[in-house]
Design brief:
The chain has 14 helices and 18 strands. It is of the alpha/beta class. The model has no long low-confidence stretch (mean pLDDT about 95).
Length: about 450
Amino acid sequence: MINVGIIGFGTVGSGTVRILLGNKDVLKERLGFEINLRKIAVRDIMRVRDVKVPEGVLTTDIDAVLNDPHIDIVVEVIGGIRPAKDFILKAISNGKHVVTANKALLATDGNEIFTAAQDAGIEIGFEASVAGGIPIIKVIREGLVANRIKAVYGIINGTSNYILTKMTDENVEFSVALKEAQKFGYAEADPTLDIEGIDSAHKLAILAYLSYGIPIPYKNIYTEGISKISSQDIDFASELGYKVKLLAIAKATPPSPPYQGGENGGVEVELRVHPTMIPKDYLISKVDGPFNAVYVEGDATGSTLYYGRGAGAMPTGSAVVSDIVDIARDIKKNATGRIPVMVKTIRDVRIKNIDDVISMYYFRFSALDKPGVLSKISGILGNYNISIASVIQKGRRIGEAVPLVVLTHEAKEKDVRHAIEEIDHLPVVMDKTVFIRVEGKEEG
């Protein structure tokens, strides 16, 4: 028997408990031994809950979980940074293996936690920290272990994906779609972490750590949310053959001068979260509503795509239980440490500055409808080595502002920002230019 103690009994905790109790016999048949839920630490024992647990399991004493010598695995599902970090470090110091769903904590303090676990010979499971029920952590750590990871593209925030899907399908503005997401429980009362890309950046930091062996790089991830995306831009994107998604991107690229790296010339990694236009015929662009998907490109496997529910009590609880099972198996076989907690740091990996990123771009200018405007704008773009792939100009209102949409070939971000700054100062441009990065096929 392997004994488990859980800290927290909210959404993820409830899903975990429901699976551990409801599928107890199934787990025993598959494992050959029992996973026993020994304690759950909660703030209020008297609170009415949907999941019934055996008498004596609930406790308000956190030390009843952390200090119980019979508990083998501690599961942290309270979220946040403190006191979750303190509980995990105490569990590690007490020789207990840990499972956590806490992406924010791992993104900010994961290096410290993983080092403590490595030093103590403790295992940490964190499958539930990224993409809910999609086993993407196991895929990268184990399934694709033979590959050099060339790129990871993720739709890894269900709230933002639901909002963008609503805007696309029903031609409503961001504020309307957000209210509906809140109404149906897809968005929190304060949705900042989701809509501003922070939650996606937390998850991308973990994926980048696993994919490229660099210390968890959350602070170095360029992050931009979806709150400024308009239905007008979504419509123009559709006309050009694209859909707008909040994409988390990790991409290995050749080093840019003057950086030469270490052995074999080194490598740079792009780490960015922002609204992105993706071709409609790409599989990942078809991921709608609250669903998640992660595309991983390996040098041996080529392109692979993983799809499913990225949040919710049962999908995330399933991921938590999968970690419990993996660690329990290792304990039984005296094989803890089979998969190292720490990824060895690769010293010649550098995170590319957003200014040096090369991408295609969508621009929407608010320009006066008069002769010579397009030539002025295209002239400035040309001065910064930005080549135009296609142009859309709809409606004629002589002397009034109209949208002028430009799709570019690949250009450097720094050049794009300088060009836009110059264009926005033209007397014929009436509002700030909107730009969205474009991933996928290069326009001919």
